[in-house]
Design brief:
The structure holds 2 protein chains of 2 kinds. Chain A is mostly helical. Helix content of chain A is 37%, strand content 4%. Chain A is built from 12 helices and 4 strands. In chain A, the strands form 2 sheets. A two-stranded antiparallel sheet of chain A has the order 1-2. Chain A has a two-stranded antiparallel sheet with strand order 3-4. In chain A, strand 3 and strand 4 form a beta hairpin. In chain A, helix 4 packs across helix 5. Chain B is built from 17 helices and no strands. In chain B, helix 6 runs parallel beside helix 9 and helix 14 runs antiparallel to helix 16. Classes of the chains: A mainly alpha, B mainly alpha.
Chain lengths: 338, 462
Amino acid sequence: MNKLVLIAGGSALVYAGLALLMGVLPGIELSRTPAGPGVEPLTPLQAEGRDVYVANGCSYCHTQQVRPLPQDKIFGRASAPGDFAYQTPELLGSERTGPDLTNAGVRQPSTVWQFIHLYNPRAVVPESIMPAFDWMFKVVDQAPAGTTPVPLPKAYAPAKGVVVPAHQAEALVAYLLSLKQPALPDLATHDGGSAMPGVSSASPAGAAVASTAAGAPSAGPVPATGGGDLAKGKALFTANCAACHQANGEGLPGAFPSLKGDDVVNDADPTEQLHAVLHGLQGARVGGVVYSSPMPPFGAALSDADVANIIDYERSSWGNHGAPVTAERVAAERAKGK
Amino acid sequence: MSQILGREGEHRAQASVFVAYTVAATLWLLFATAVGIVLAYKFGAPDFARGEFLTFGRLRPIHTNATLFGWASLALVGLAYYVTPRSCGSPLYSAKLAWIGLALFNVAAVAGTIALDLGYNAGSLEYREWPWPIRLIFLAALAVTAWNLIGTIARRSTEDIYLSNWYIVGGVLFASIFSLVAILPWYQYGLGQVSVSGYYMHNAVGMWFTPLTLGMLYYALPKTLSRPIYSYALGVFAFWTNLVFYPIIGSHHFLFSPLPWWLQTTAIVFSVAMLVPVWGGSSNFLLTMRGRLRDLVHSYPLMFIFVGVIGYVVGSTQGTFEAFRSLQEVWHLTNFTVGHSHLTMYGFVNFAIWGGVYALLPLATGKAPGPLGLSLHFWMAVVGSFIYVISLSIGGTIQGLDWMRGAPFIQSVVDIQSYWVWRGVGGVLMFLSHIVFAWNVWRMCFGPSAEAAPLAAEGAAV
């Protein structure tokens, strides 16, 4: 009997001690981590949306932790302990089959896009393998007063009637749009990242990533003399613009404007296009159609050279013939302010 | 005379406990891996099996929890209920408690599966997704099992407590402790919960499945080879080093996260230290098999055990390397991790369980599976899991490198597609092998009686 007490009791005691040391005590200590500046609790609707997120296991494919590594800059600044004060259950996740969502509300602020994407992700991102959450929507003959039907592309729309979000989808999108990293002033230099919330550039080369890391808005010596790097422009377009404007530049009718043959994109004077990319758009009227989706500003996240690369790519693709812009021209427009 | 009859009755009661646990576990294996196939298919055809109750995010935790707490837990407890009485030379403390435990394990797994499918997920926290009342039922099952096993050991007829029982009783007690730590809410807010997740998700695997598997192997391997374990002392040494090092390494699942840097570094250091019990334990098994290669290739139970030991040493060593920051930079959050978890849970735990079941269940029931069923199971499982792990390891590496070179995110989804197809191919082979396993279990439990012991039936020297 003594041996049994020694082996079973002794090892259980050692293990209990270690469980206390490595599980419980760090838990107690870290549970007290105060909220960072600007970190707010969720509204009731957003909290409901978070429950929908948990119930459907979104975090098995989407992380909510930005690591202090160059490849994570596209998702925002590095996560700080204070970011998680109101996050129980924690949703850091362990896999990134899909992109990190820590800053999703800044990267993709369009409610319309979120609804289309949720209804069927392939309607906006053809290569996506995310499940369709169409069961969070209703098909009705006519949208009730005060609700706008989801402007689905024909191939994905039901044969009859229109699609409107059900409560679950409303809550989930409210939660997704709430995912915004507050700026961390004193961390800006700590990890060499820009403290600006928003999309960072996804550059096709490690060196380009490093140059972004050095501080996004002020690009260092840029060799751009107009007609910039089109390959780089295409990659940046895919990472930052294609989700709405689509890879073919045609957008989605009624939801996102086409860039193909667009007057602004083909205008010899690039001012208006530069302004849109740097500062974003709200309630834009394009070709007589008013688009309710806001376009997020990219000025904080993209360098002058990157903005020039994207615009040059847009101006020379899909049959467009706009005059190219230089990084210097972007810098001049940026200097003018909003 | 009545004593002999009593002994006979005890054996029969023990055998039926072993059979019941194994049959239930096998049903869970079929269910869990069928769900796994559906999940694998969705990576190539995301609009397949859509809808609320078949959506990826609900099926994924159903797959992992049914695998861990339905299949592997039941199979290992069933084996423990055979190994512990045998190695103690005493009857099972209470067959009734074993049946109660079986009911509790199954109630928890069924309720947990239904809850997850209805969207009652406790927080998408790896391996503790079941709502807490259901996890309390599982905890009760563990407590019943611990009580029963300790009671059996207390009544042993041998002076010493054989090594197997150190691992088995230890494992059940450790699992009771970490399950409780995971349920109590008071230290699990925000970042605090992240640290508990790191601790829990790792311990759930390595302080439960590993000790029970090793404990079973310390009995099944010498028994099958009719030769003592190479070194008893090495086994004891591996037990204590595993106990001290393993609980510390959980935070390596959250490298580069906002968890304190020292916590992450400590986890990395002890991940390296884990090489000591892993290599110590596995070389103990390999040295026990040394010089008996001829027996090995003539005995499927031994082949399964051999693959299990190789899976243990390769999977755990890979785990140590994955914990390095330099390699985590590439592999963290990619499908490489999924390959790793299957290398360890499948390559190590599953193969060892199968070896144990094929070695011991025929001894309990007097019925053996046929050589065709054994070879089909073995080869499909080996080839299938090899394809599975290799394809996800390559695909995961490509994902990580895509991110590092700054490709648009969607590129990493496109580039891994063909490796997901291969993963599906491996997965289908694995699933087919489980159907054969179920057939073999049927033969061992309810099939025609065999005259000879399984090894002799295989024509191997004993």
